[in-house]
Amino acid sequence: MFIKKGCFFGVRGIFVMVNESVAGKDEYAAKDIKVLEGLEAVRKRPGMYIGSTDKYGLHHCVYEVVDNSVDEHMAGAGEEIRVTINKNGSVSVEDDGRGMPVDMHPVYKRPAMEIIVTKLHAGGKFDNKAYAVSGGLHGVGISVVAALSKEMTVEVRKAGKIYAQTYNIGVPAGDMKVIGTCGTEEHGTKVTFMPDESIFTTLDFEYKILATRFRETCFLNAGLKISFKDLREELIKSESFRYEGGLVEFVKWLNKTRNAIHQKPIYFKREEGKTVAEVAIQYSDSYNENIQGFVNTINTIEGGTHVIGLKTALTRVINDYGTKKGVLKKGQKLSGDDVREGITAVISVKMQDPQFEGQTKTKLGNSEIKGIIDSMATVALTDFLEENPVVGKAILVKASSALKAREAAKRAKDLVRRKNALSVGSGLPGKLADCSSKKKENTELYIVEGDSAGGTAKGGRDRETQAILPLRGKILNVEKSNPSRALSSEMISNMITAIGTGVGDSFDITKLRYNKVIIMTDADVDGQHIKSLMLTLFFRYLPQLVEAGHIFVAVAPFYKIKKGMKEYYVYNAEELKTKSAELGGKLEVGRFKGLGEMNDEQLWDTTMNPKTRRLKQVSIADAVEADETFSLLMGDAVAPRRAFIEENADKAEVDL
Predict the structure, then answer these.
(1) Is there a contact between 529 and 538 (Cβ–Cβ < 8 Å)?
(2) 463 contact partners, CB below 8 Å, separation of at least 6
(3) Which residues does 213 contact at the CB level (< 8 Å), separation at least 6?
(4) Is the pLDDT of residue 27 over 80?
(5) H or E segment at 70?
(6) Catalytic positions, please?
(7) What distance in Å separates the CA atoms of residue 377 and residue 312, rounded to the nearest whole number?
(8) H or E segment at 40?
(9) How far is the C-alpha of 275 from the C-alpha of 409, rounded, in Å?
(10) Burial of 229 by CB count in 10 Å (0-12 exposed, 13-18 middle, 19+ buried)?
(11) How far apart are CA 467 and CA 535, in angstroms?
């Protein structure tokens, strides 16, 4: 435990509060704890509280506990958090704060620590006193983590004593006790929990997932330090994260695989009423837009009103600046796409009572925030550009280049953005073999590598529900191409036309023509490359479809085993070994070089039949990491990609 003057480890609430004043460390006691309801539903419906019971939900438990300590930092108290994955697979989170209240609650006549841990929505964040800002998307807090843990122990150091209590699936195993003494200046809380294997499908915490989260958290909270250790293996993994530069360091880190066109990022922090907005922006020579939005440290991967407000201000200010400086001719106007080409930006908002919506409940919906951010950003950006003309010129040159490319390719872009992809004669690709069903929820579009495989797929498909679009060769790498060139590409244009939603500002998910868009490529190296190119296209131009769960990858078999008159299909070398050992005897093993080698029936049985096929749904668990990965692997920077390959070469699967 650390020697500090104050930090409470409280519970994150579903109702996220911003208080007019922050209680001092001496004011925070049992009387500040308000109880809203019990824990009855948590174990019956865990997905309602942590999203799922798979890997995502498991890691979410760690976030819930850590974010309580982060809330203390945002309240101006704690400075350091230590997170440890213990040898037995449990997780410990230790902060340097005031420590959870341990005095008796005036209503419930039990120690406040026990009330916080055992009562859902019990904490110091519901009465506008103890916290200025608290984070939390689901806001389930430590009580839900306790309910879903086989065992949880909470230790508190304060006033010279060490208090502790253990809970089994949210129920106290005994009374809170004083288990020792400590220095009078020592304060803080330590929580250790072991997830319940009867609840979660996996108990294997992934170091990289947690490290990524902690890194982002420290970027968003300048000066906060998170120390992270994994003790499960002989070679202990450990990292410490602390960024005094906050968001400025964040955008530089996001751009580490790109070439920045101005070294000094745009940065501003503004406050209006109870809303605080912090923004950092840096442009690179890439063609892609990367705007990361956060609300009370929650990554709003679907954007929302705060991101819209920033985009609106950015477009207006740069147009005005370009006109004033004579770079834009009379009548010329930069579009939002022009202004945002090559941008990397982070907007972090601290606010009262955020309302989340969208497919994954990570889209800010508060209507008033758009105007607030627009107003703040307009003033701040105007001031910055006037004071930093070199940066302003670099941005104008970049945006003007995008404008010229857009005007030169206007006809091709208009083809992609046509308004009615569903109407008769609307220009659907000639190679598209459409399905007959008009019920979108039942339909699938297979994007298939090669004419040969496309022909087989057309013959083996379910014509009512499955549409086939063959591609000839590899599509353009959109990571290295400007949008006009990318959208002028015949293959990319055909794909977007068939999908029907349009791209960019004209994107409309209601015009999606198929419920599932399935990438189907060969299982060899070329097929994996084509798959990567298509995933890059979807992430950069149609991320909404990924976020909404409409993009899938078909898993094609790699081998065919023949024993007598029976045939078996396996999908990798490991399965081949297992199946061969199971079958025994004399076997004929053949390797598929491509989907086109299969006949109609084989392709249907192995890859297209909903009852037997294997599909992988594409999702974005972490938008920041996804952007980094695509930029690293598909971008221009060679050295970082070489380093990545060297570091991960031993993890590659090689089939001989």
Answers:
(1) no
(2) 435, 436
(3) 59, 62, 63, 66, 622
(4) no
(5) helix 55-74
(6) 449, 522, 524, 526
(7) 9
(8) none
(9) 41
(10) middle
(11) 19
Beta-carbon contacts of 71 under 8 Å, excluding residues fewer than 6 positions away, are: 10, 12, 125, 131, 133, 134, 135
- Write out pLDDT tens, residues 401-433: 888 887 776 655 455 444 334 344 446 787 899
Tell whether the model's pLDDT for residue 8 goes beyond 60. Answer: no
Tokens 């939002």, residue?
336
Please choose, from the candidates 425, 404, 427, the residue with its C-alpha nearest in 3D space to the C-alpha of residue 416.
427
Side-chain-side CA neighbours of 228 within 13 Å: the count stands at 21
What is the number of H-type helices and E-type strands within the chain?
A: 20, 26
pLDDT at 23 over 60: no
Q: Would strands 444-449 and 466-471 be described as parallel, antiparallel, or unpaired? A: parallel
Q: Which amino acid is at 140?
A: V
C-alpha dihedral, 216 to 220 to 226 to 231, nearest 10°: -10
Cα–Cα distance for residue pair 526/576, rounded to 1 Å: 21
Cα–Cα distance measured from residue 96 to residue 163, given in angstroms and rounded to the nearest whole number: 15
**If you ran DSSP here, which 8-state letter would residue 597 be given?**
G
**If pLDDT is split at 50, 70 and 90, which confidence band does 136 have?**
very low
Confidence class of residue 2 from pLDDT cuts 50, 70 and 90? very low
CA angle 148-152-153, nearest 5°?
A: 165
- In this structure, what token pair is assigned to residue 562? 């023949």
Give the contacts of 542 (CB within 8 A, at least 6 positions apart). Answer: 496, 499, 501, 503, 507, 551
- Strand ranges (E), 393-471: 444-449, 466-471
Q: What amino acid is encoded at 447 in this protein? A: I
On whether the CB atoms of residues 359 and 227 are closer than 8 A, the answer is no
**Helices (DSSP H) in 525-637: which residue ranges?**
525-541, 543-547, 573-583, 600-603, 623-634
- Residues with Cβ < 8 Å from 591, sequence gap 6 or more? 558, 559, 560, 655
Length of the chain: 656
Distance CA(516)–CA(441), nearest Å, equals 8
Q: Which two tokens stand for residue 64?
A: 């819930």
In the chain, the amino acid numbered 310 is L
β-bridge partners, 299? 294
211-246 pLDDT, tens per residue? 999 999 999 999 999 999 999 999 999 999 999 999
Question: Alpha carbon 295 to chain centroid distance?
Answer: 14
Q: In which residue are the tokens 């997780």 written?
A: 91
Lookup: tokens for 579: 């199946």
**CB contact burial 88-107 (16+ within 10 A = b; e otherwise):** eebbbbbbbbbbbbbebbee
Token code pair at residue 9 = 């480890």
Reported confidence tier of residue 634, pLDDT bands at 50, 70, 90: confident
Q: Which residue has the tokens 């090689």?
A: 654
Strand partners, 205: none
Per-residue pLDDT at 24: 47
Helix (H), strand (E), coil (C) string for 339-357: HHCCEEEEEEEECCCCCEE
